[in-house]
Q: What sequence folds into this?
């Protein structure tokens, strides 16, 4: 009996989406760490991207507000090979 790729469980690739108001447009220092917006943790880059995009669009009128996607799976397993197509982060 052969097994196809679709029969294999997908590897969980955790991504954190968060944001906050920056001190300056030139850096990534947050104005107030107590006010960071933790949007959530998602099992794939695609789902994290959707959440990132929604949060970023919600705050489009504030130029200092920025949202980020953190590849938690890379922090949890730094020796793992990169996932094709997931290196493009907003």
A:
């Amino acid at each position: 009996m052969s097994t196809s790729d679709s029969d294999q469980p997908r590897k969980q690739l955790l991504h954190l989406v968060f944001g906050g108001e920056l001190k300056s447009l030139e850096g990534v220092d947050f104005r107030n760490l107590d006010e960071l917006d933790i949007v959530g943790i998602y099992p794939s880059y695609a789902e994290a991207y959707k959440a990132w995009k929604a949060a970023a669009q919600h705050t489009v009128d504030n130029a200092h507000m920025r949202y980020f996607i953190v590849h938690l799976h890379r922090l949890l397993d730094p020796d793992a090979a990169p996932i094709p197509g997931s290196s493009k982060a907003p």
Remarks:
- DSSP finds two helices and three strands in the chain.
- The chain has a mean pLDDT of 85.
